[in-house]
Amino acid sequence: MVKPKTMIYIFIIILICQISGSEIGHPVLSVKNGNRNETIITLDDQTHIDYGLAYPVTYEFNIPSGNDNLRSYRRFQSTQDWSQIVEKTPEDFFNGIEAVRFDYNENTAYVSIGFSDLSDSIFIKIADSAGNTIDASYSEISQYYDNRDAAVTSTADDWGSWNNNDFVQTCEIFRSFNLWLSCAIITDFLDSNAWVDIQTQLDSGYVEAIAHSRTHPYVPYNDVEGEVLGSMQDIIDNLDLPAHNSYGIREYVYAWVAPYGEYDDTIDSMVSVAKYLVPRLYYENQHGFSNWNQDLNKYEPVGVSIEVGGYYYWTGSTDTVELNHTFDDVLTYGGVYHVMCHPAIIDWENDDYPWVHLEHISNRNNVWYTGFGHLYAYHFLQSTYPEINLHSIDFSESIPQQIVIHQNYPNPFNPTTTLRYDLPEDALVNITIYDMMGRVVRIMVNGEQNAGFKSVKWNATNNIGQPVTAGLYLYTMQAGDFKQTRKMVLVK
């Protein structure tokens, strides 16, 4: 008899074969204003099936000045009663939960909600203390959850029965620091006891299951489908995955970790067929997201920031100064700090360096801590506008209601990024890019413009067309009395 999960798996494979290689012909995400100042965020139904996307994404709303003591509400169907969203403040430590945070100085509400199995839509409204719905306009999706300054994610490689105790210990230690650990599982190398231990760790929180093949082979694989797609199905069949990896009875494994860091086009194609969002390799000094592959509908392979510990043939570090400085640099520039490890080679009882480093990077209110797959599930919705035409905004009016300059997309970027801004009326507009010394790098806009939703692309060159160096840049928009500056990071 075929298991229910396997039947779903067969159905999805048939569906993948039908749509594989085709471009998405309509927006994945649409945002529009409904009645009575409601905002309706709708996800394409096939994308909802393919990825679930239950991890909360932060939607930014412009709120009128002079307000305080506001509340936010959500529902997933128009017939549902409204549910009030839990409010958090910058002093609270929280990650990956449904929440709202109001910044009355910046006139912004940060509303974090994931999609539900009840529908493909999220309905949001913001009201005052008397219950009156206010005029709050959708602005954008925050680059990181709750508009944090940077993200931290961790991966651990080679979970098998022979090192099961090492993984359990490492999961528990990371959890004690409130750090997520995404564990790369070699599915054929596990016995029943190890599967039980993995389930216990998932149920305890702060642990994500990601795939690391069935037999940890060298390239070329004898069975590419079994190693890549089959290992995902092994995880789904043997585990009950948490809510962030579920949509009704469907379950998702978002990340594939390449054995030995070896990779080829055949594996890349199978990663696409299996509907992983991203493959992870072994190279270091990668502090941002990889680019979306429009042909394969997945992110390109990505490396890590640094490994804690390391084999003799791998450039991991046991130097706390190097480890901590790497994190500090990423935090300064607003990137993704991705620390990896092999639990089998970390001696938690006798080595100080992993404890010192985890203490240094953990429990910061301005940092987003998340699983590696969840990081890319969030980024999938956040980053895709306008580079690959997956995210479109359907405003009920053709003219914006207030002046806004949005965070550039993508960010970090290499070498092109887009600056979007909204003009409620005709104005003399200046948008200038500066380096960290305050020197003018590029004047992007300088002239009279009509009202509307605007964008301009920067290709990382200066005013005379020369490429600029990697680093942190500022861009400032002036229009009448309005002036605002945002940061962006060029990586090379």
Could you say which overall geometry the principal axes of the C-alpha atoms support?
A: globular
Q: What would you report as the Rg, rounded to the nearest angstrom?
A: 23 Å
Structurally, the number of domains stands at 3
Question: CA-to-CA gap between the ends?
Answer: 52 Å
Q: Profile the largest sheet.
A: 6 strands, parallel
Task: Supply the key terms.
22% helix; six-stranded parallel β-sheet; globular; 9 helices; 29% strand; disordered N terminus; Jelly Rolls; Immunoglobulin-like; TIM Barrel; single chain; 492 residues; alpha+beta; five-stranded antiparallel β-sheet
Topology:
Blueprint: H1 4-19, E1 29-33, E2 39-43, H2 45-51, E3 57-62, E4 71-75, E5 83-84, E6 99-103, E7 108-113, E8 121-127, E9 137-141, E10 150-159, H3 164-176, E11 181-185, H4 192-204, E12 207-211, H5 224-238, E13 246-247, E14 250-251, E15 255-257, H6 265-273, E16 278-280, E17 292-293, E18 298-299, E19 306-308, H7 320-333, E20 336-341, H8 353-361, E21 367-369, H9 372-383, E22 404-405, E23 417-423, E24 427-434, E25 440-449, E26 452-458, E27 471-479, E28 482-490
Parallel strand pairs: 10-11, 10-20, 10-21, 11-12, 15-16, 19-20
Antiparallel strand pairs: 1-2, 2-8, 3-7, 3-9, 4-5, 4-8, 6-7, 13-14, 17-18, 22-23, 23-26, 24-25, 24-27, 27-28
Helix pairs in contact: 3-4, 5-6, 7-8
